[in-house]
Amino acid sequence: MFSKINIFRGKNVLSLLFLLFFSFNTSNLLANDLEEHAVSQSSDSTVNNAAEAHAAEGHDDKVDITAVAFEHILDSHSWHLWGHGEEAVAIPLPVIIYSSTKGLQIFSSSKFEHGHASYEGYSLQAEKILSSDANETIYDLSITKNVAQMIISMIIIVLLFSSIAKAYAKTGINSAPKGKQSFFEPLIVFVRDDIAKTNIGSKYMKFVPYLLTIFFFILLNNILGMLPIGANLTGNIAFTLVLSVITLIVTNVNGNGHYWHHIFMPPAPKWLYPILIPIEVVGILTKPFALMIRLFANITAGHIIIISLIGLIFIFKSLAVSPIAVAFALFIDVLECLVAFLQAYIFTMLTALFIGSACADHNEDGAHTSDDDVHVAKANH
């Protein structure tokens, strides 16, 4: 199949420098975004109120770190780039609404003017589209920021691996890989041999396409989400829920007789069945639930920590805090690069483990039978 090579020979120093440069610029862009937010709030307050009235109302021109953090990690109907308020620069996205009275409605999110205006009886409040007609039921099918990034990542993956497949079709699989093949081949081999084959067993090739898809899909979106202007797709619990439900379906559809026998007829005294069977059934759901929460929590927490560390500069309003805040933010940013790969690996590995436990062959004692045991049994026979 694929040849195993070391693609980082002689490039470790350059890779590290690029990583540090990328992390520093990420922290710098976040700091600029927070500063623009503070300046925007300050200028708006100055225009609307005199200095004395401003102080009397309790405004202190402090940047709202919570608002900036949630703006980055939550979904929205427009793709925010930088700035806040009237000076915000954002890419409008299509708003698609199905109304119980008006039917299908399609228009640009720019009609809402960042939530400050209504359009055709619809308004945007806290990224939720509401109708002025209380009797109207609407279904929001809009292309939001997370949906847009998911489409972009799908296009990237299809184009990338289609070009790699064409390259292999021309050069063959026995020649040394070149270009992007040399980077992705070790990852593909790793998922195939160390994740799928190790955890699933002899039937692993059936599930390799699915495991490769979720590994690279999660990895790509983890990396895109680290960009200040990127969408936090893998930190969206709805996204991780769908991935975990797909894993649940794949696992249980391919479960063999031993798997279901263990759930509904566990190896225990029958008087314990009323207790054990509900526990086993609940266990079917807790496995994908753990996948969903783990990916969502780890990715979201990293983003919040980085933004919060940069926000310390504006909370304390002191340049003395800047070196410490940027240093810690840079450290967490570098750590997030590792987490991006680690969470993609963990999700894929646990998925393979769940599928393997449902598909594994068992011997007479109920223990899992490995490929080596099968070969030994055939040889003895």
Could you explain how this protein is built, in words?
- With 381 residues, this protein is mainly α.
- It folds into 2 domains: 88-142, no CATH class; 146-380, no CATH class.
- It contains 11 helices and 8 strands.
- The protein has helices at residues 12-48, 51-56, 65-73, 145-171, 180-200, 208-225, 237-253, 257-264, 273-316, 322-359, 371-380, and strands at residues 78-82, 89-92, 94-99, 103-108, 118-119, 122-125, 128-131, 138-140.
- The strands form 3 sheets. It has a 3-stranded antiparallel beta sheet with strand order 4-3-8, with no helix packed on it. Strands 5-6-7 form a 3-stranded antiparallel beta sheet, with no helix packed on it.
- Strand 3 (94-99) and strand 4 (103-108) form a beta hairpin.
- Helix 4 (145-171) crosses helix 6 (208-225) and helix 5 crosses helix 10 (322-359).
- The longest helix has 44 residues, at 273-316.
- The model is unreliable at 1-59, 363-367 and 372-381 (pLDDT under 50).
Q: Please outline the major beta sheet.
A: 3 strands, antiparallel
Computed over alpha carbons, the radius of gyration is 26 Å
Q: Could you tell me the mean pLDDT? A: 79
Tally of DSSP β-strands: 8
The topology string of helices and strands comes to HHHEEEEEEEEHHHHHHHH
